Amino acid sequence: MRVLILGMDGYLGWPLALRLLARGHEVAGIDNLYTRKAVEEVGSASALPIPSPEERVHAVRDIMGKDLDFIIGDITKYSVLNKAIRKFKPDTVVHFAEQRSAPYSMIDVKHANFTMRNNLSGTLNLIYAVKKANPKVHVVKMGTMGEYGTPNFDIPESAFVDAQIGGKSDRIVVPKWAGSWYHWSKVHDTNNLLFANKVWGITTTDIMQGPVYGTRTKEITDDRLFTRFDFDGVWGTVFNRYCVESVLGMPLTQYGKGGQTRAFLSLEDSMESLRLLIENRPNDGEYRVVNQFTEVYSVRELALIAKEVASKNGMSVEIGEVDNPRVEANEHYYKPVHDILPALGLKSPTRNIRDEMGVILKDLQKHKSRLAEYKDAIMPEVRWKD
Ligand code: NAD
Ligand code: USQ
Fold first, then answer.
1. Coil, strand or helix: which one is 11?
2. Ligand 1 contacts CB of residue 31 (under 6 A)
3. How far is the CA of 96 from the centre of ligand 1 (A)?
4. Which of 125, 141, 213, 321 has the most CB atoms lying inside 10 A of its own CB?
5. What are the pLDDT digits (tens) for 202-213?
């Protein structure tokens, strides 16, 4: 299969390129290297140093014996995306190329606007480029579990739900209640993709994924193949941050009492899920919504796991209680349905979170002095209410 990855330089895009190449697919990717610059903007860097795009392509050739086409370009420019799709002729396009940080989107009006423009116009360009070049292309769009917020109902794996409003029944789009401008940009993307599916029948898999943790996948066996790993207060996700904080001996930055619950998965399980969804496309014209995760934890449970594993690895850490910078409930119901991926063969979780944390700590310890250099960027500075 020919797969075009938008956002191939990112945390998920890079290991997906490696996974698909290892499976024998032909892969090309586009990235404008925006995340590299935006992480610098907040005074941080990837915990694991990542090579330039040219070095990445060479490393893939040396280590895996595979060719990879890496296009530097901005998908909000329609001509860039249109040209790549016409030239590469993908069967599947995987769309990761978005501003993906909730705190970044909440910095101020400029960052909120950037998030909306970048994310919505990239997705609209993709819809039009596919419609024009070949409407049979399978669009695999990375959304987020956070589109729903934390509702008091089980989160379905479906775009529509039966509802009763004012005594009348109808089938309506599943209600969403996102928690940041970033998460709202994903809701708006979903609405736009649903409309494109209704009008032009574009075959779509809209993935609702929870936060990912980890440094390794089956293919990341050499330092030159590492993917980025963010840990600062704007770009780092919670469990990856706990790992860096453990290495630095800092109190774990649990926000509030840690009663927020999310649906997590390891980097390896994220790649395996994506592989299954790409290799098992929906029917032509179908709109498939998939909840992508393997484990559900509150951030307090995660902090307890991190403390336990850190201590087994000779690191003594305390669980801190940072004033929650976000507007979130202290405790809430959380239950996403998870049927589609197990039915496709995902054995979840394939890696135990405690074992995986041991691997992450080992990888991070080699870069402890680099982490210490960016220690000032760890505490959260962006407050939703400011
Ligand atoms: P990332 O920031 O590491 O990767 C995104 C990549 O897209 C970056 O390399 C960036 O430079 C590129 N990009 C952004 N805008 C672009 C544009 N206009 N043109 C070309 N390239 C552009 O993020 P990630 O963690 O790899 O996330 C990938 C996707 O998965 C995102 O859409 C994110 O919202 C979603 N997601 C991530 C997680 C997670 O825990 N990391 C969880 C759920 C969903
Ligand atoms: N949190 C802490 N301590 C921290 C960081 C976060 O307690 O040091 C809490 C947050 O308050 C939140 C939860 O952990 O309740 C998750 O926060 P996060 O920063 O790990 O994840 P989030 O901002 O939601 O975003 C990440 C990715 C995003 C993806 C999303 C999936 O950056 O791209 O869409 O996870 S989900 O969370 O399901 O929406």
1. coil
2. yes
3. 5
4. 213
5. 999 999 999 999
Q: Is the CB of 234 within 6 Å of ligand 1?
A: no
Round to whole Å and give the CA distance between 184 and 270. Answer: 22
Ligand nearest to the CA of 126: 1
Q: Is the pLDDT of residue 348 over 90?
A: no
Whether the model pTM is above 0.85:
yes
Provide the 10 A C-beta neighbour count for residue 61: 12
Cα of 209 to ligand 1 centre, how many Å? 12
Identify which of 12, 61, 57 has the alpha carbon closest to the alpha carbon of residue 227. 12
Half-sphere exposure of 302 (CA within 13 A, CB side): 31
DSSP 162-178: EEEETTEEEEEEPP---
List the residue whose alpha carbon is closest to atom 29 of ligand 1.
96
pLDDT of residue 311: 97
pLDDT one-digit tens code per residue, 269-290? 999 999 999 999 999 999 999 9
User: Measured from the CB, is residue 210 less than 6 Å from ligand 2?
Assistant: yes
Looking at residue 351, its pLDDT comes to 86
* Angle in degrees, 0-180, between the axes of helices 238-248 and 299-312, rounded to the nearest 10: 30
Residue 336 beta carbon below 6 angstroms from any ligand 2 atom: no
Q: Count the neighbouring beta carbons within 10 Å of the beta carbon of residue 385.
A: 7
